[in-house]
What we know:
Elements: E1 40-42, H1 45-54, E2 60-65, H2 70-86, E3 91-96, H3 101-106, E4 114-119, E5 122-128, H4 133-149, H5 173-183, H6 187-200, H7 205-221, H8 226-235, H9 240-252, H10 256-269, H11 272-289, H12 294-307
Parallel strand pairs: 1-3, 2-3
Antiparallel strand pairs: 2-4, 4-5
Amino acid sequence: MPAQPPTPGPRLDVRGAVDLSALARTAPGAPGGPAAGAWVRDVDPTSFAEVVQASTVHPVVVVLWASWSQASRTVVDDLGALAAEDAGRWLLARVDVEANPQIAQAFAVQSVPVVVAMLGGRPLPLFEGQPDRAQVRGVIDQVLEAAAANGITGTVATGEPPAEAPEEPALPPLHQAAYDAIARDDLDAAREAYDQALRENPRDGEARAGLAQVGLLARTKEVGDPSAARQAAADAPGDVAAQLVVADLDVAGGQVDDAFARLVGLVRVTAGDDRERVRVRLLDLFEVVGGDDPRVVAARRALAAALY
């Protein structure tokens, strides 16, 4: 469990290209564990976008769990008790991964439970497994501190759904077309919309970031078994293709530093076309995470040192 919440991960915000609200909608399963209440909600792809929006007003803690997992049930119980203690300072959003596999896939969940904070529409991976309640309390306190530092200090009203963020301005037409294409799982159309936006305005940073995010989403969808992909990379550290797959999985799962370290290390030991392939993928992942992210700034320096 990290000593403090990680800095923000890849752009998975409501209006971004990799957008949880754009997941195909499925019927919610029956809730399990302790009953939902004022500060605890069971969410599915239909309601998850509301939770992401609410995280711009108050912190949201998402627990991805399964009823067959005793560790999951214990963590859900502990988080529910802590949410009650904090009386609306944050919302607990419970996701049953069996009933909502699309959300689990979006978070690259490989085992349960997984706990992620949402602040300002962006995910911050917190922990996996079953720490004791005192450790969980410490992590939640750090989330609240991070939220306060970013001006996210609202509360969840008793008996009311999470507060909604202020309405955002309309997207430019091509960005909206890309957003709609992702909603219907047409990544080719989304890619073409962003490409057209860049042809019309080569300085459109949001289109460039959206294009990178669509590329990441498309590549990770092609990975059959993430565990097998990771094992293949471990067995063949010099296999550029295998290492690129794992770097994509790491960024999609919020393990950004691991992905960047893997690829910078690969730049150091490759040459020619292989090195260029790795460099280009790194630049693409920099776009996904965001150029102003401190991890990107540090990785750019490391890449420059590795190249020169």
